[in-house]
Design brief:
This protein has two helices and ten strands; from the N terminus they run ααββββββββββ. The chain has 175 residues and is mainly β. The relative contact order is 0.17. Pfam families: DUF3833.
Length: 175
């Protein structure tokens, strides 16, 4: 019986892995996303954080200012949370290939790596956040979907020890 359960779990795991979204699925979608074009100038974002059960645990607005010089960009973000807190993050972005980017920020471990296909960017990185006054590192699987030249939807899955601990949903628009 234990063997049957173990085999069933392995089959389910591989089935779920096989169902995961591939970035290549979006390669023909338009408009083609270029971070240096979308994240250039003033933007505003509205979002929420949900825990593993789907309960909304944070709501926020973000003021963003992006600028680029060649293949190097800076994205200055100021977060305004519903509970009155403010937080700052400055991304230093580099276009490393026609459809590849790297990002660095003070609360990101090592480097965020991203790849674009069509109208979608998929980032992967570890973000250090504070939870109950303690540092907490979460791995982010970040998907940005360009809706049109002025609007984007961002969905992010958060993982700790490989377990999904929450999701971030964000709308980003040009001012």
């Amino acid at each position: 019986m234990k063997k049957l359960i173990a085999v069933t779990l392995v089959v389910v795991m591989f089935t779920l892995i096989g169902c995961s979204t591939s970035l290549d699925t979006y390669r023909d979608e338009e408009p083609h996303l270029k971070l240096e074009e979308f994240f250039n100038g003033e933007l505003v974002a509205y979002g929420m954080v949900q825990d593993y059960s789907g309960e909304v645990i944070q709501r926020f607005r973000v003021e963003l200012e992006g600028s680029w010089e060649g293949n190097e960009g800076v994205l200055d973000e100021t977060f305004y949370y519903a509970d009155g807190r403010e937080e700052k993050r400055i991304w230093y972005l580099t276009k490393t290939a026609p459809d590849q980017y790297e990002g660095r920020a003070s609360d990101v471990e090592d480097v965020a790596y991203g790849k674009v296909a069509g109208n979608v960017l998929n980032w992967s990185y570890v973000l250090n956040i504070e939870m109950d006054g303690e540092p907490f590192a979460v791995k982010l699987d970040d998907w940005l979907y360009l809706v049109d030249k002025d609007n984007m939807i961002n969905r992010t899955q958060m993982y700790k020890y490989g377990i999904n601990v929450g999701e971030i949903t964000l709308y980003i628009g040009k001012k």
